[in-house]
Amino acid sequence: MTAVKALLVDLDGTLVETNEANRAAYSEALRPHGITIDERWWKANAVGRHWSGFLPLLLPNAERVELQAIAARKTEIYPEFLDKTVINKPLVAWIVASRPALRTALVTTASRTSATAVLRCHGLSDLFDETVCGDEVTAPKPAPEAYDVAARRLGVSAGACLVVEDSEVGAAAAKAFGAPCVLVRFGS
Prior knowledge:
Rossmann fold, DNA polymerase, domain 1
């Protein structure tokens, strides 16, 4: 068995509880279409998924360009909702205690803009050696591409990584990547 050399940590719902902020921002972006996302639908259909996996469920006849515009609008207004986010203090403490012995990467389906806003809001920008965001890969989780990119940037193999996730989608990505995964549950 290879020793763990790197922690690959998910953002939304793992490092920071962002579900309510994301739901509220997408609801606002969808308001011109007459759609409000309730909490139950959000948890069942969107948590842990890239927008391309759930926006088509809400607007099945929309063209991809229209869905991209909604996602872009959500990203633009997302900082207005960051007061609805909460950091996972025990996980942050674990990551801090693990450094510098372990390399760290944030691996998220969130856009670089949104991830940067969350990290800055909570003073976590210096917590990671690398950050891989959803807009930097062609196949979002549950595909393993983002984890592959993170490991390559850190110079480690999949077997030398420990993935920290909160969703089944993220766990599936970790499994496809070939790394053990710890599921973290906190918040609502």
